[in-house]
Design a protein that fits this description.
alpha+beta
Length: 132
């Protein structure tokens, strides 16, 4: 019986290590975009981000639990600021793919055609103030 618990604990521990490793890969890949020129983003969102002095692209998924509390905040920002975009990855996959979004919620900040910051997960409080 104790061997079963040991194997179960090893399995659960291994799964947790795998999930944390995958999360780290996502964060590192997204941060690698910082400082680089904005890639070719399709459609009106791409045009807006290219032309914006300061723009923001917020990516969410309807099934993302963390996104449910963040999305209404960013939607209010987008009503006030035309350079803030709320992007559902299930409907605008081409935009998410162009910016290499691998997880939600993700926020990509753009200034004068360059990616200046990428946030995966919870939003920094000052972000809302910058675009509000």
């Amino acid at each position: 019986m104790t061997q079963i618990f040991m194997y179960l604990a090893l399995g659960v521990g291994g799964l947790l290590v795998l999930m944390m490793g995958l999360n780290l890969v996502v964060v590192l890949r997204m941060r690698a975009l910082q400082g680089k020129p904005l890639p070719e983003v399709p459609g009106p969102i791409g045009k807006s981000l290219r032309n914006a002095k300061r723009g923001l692209a917020y990516f969410f998924s309807p099934t993302c639990g963390a996104c449910r509390s963040i999305t209404p905040v960013i939607e209010k920002l987008s009503e006030k600021n035309r350079d803030v975009h709320v992007i559902d990855v299930t409907r605008q996959f081409d935009v998410a793919r162009a910016l290499k979004v691998l997880a939600t919620p993700t926020v990509v900040e753009v200034e004068s055609g360059r990616i200046v910051a990428v946030h995966v997960g919870p939003l920094p409080p000052q972000l809302v103030q910058r675009y509000g």
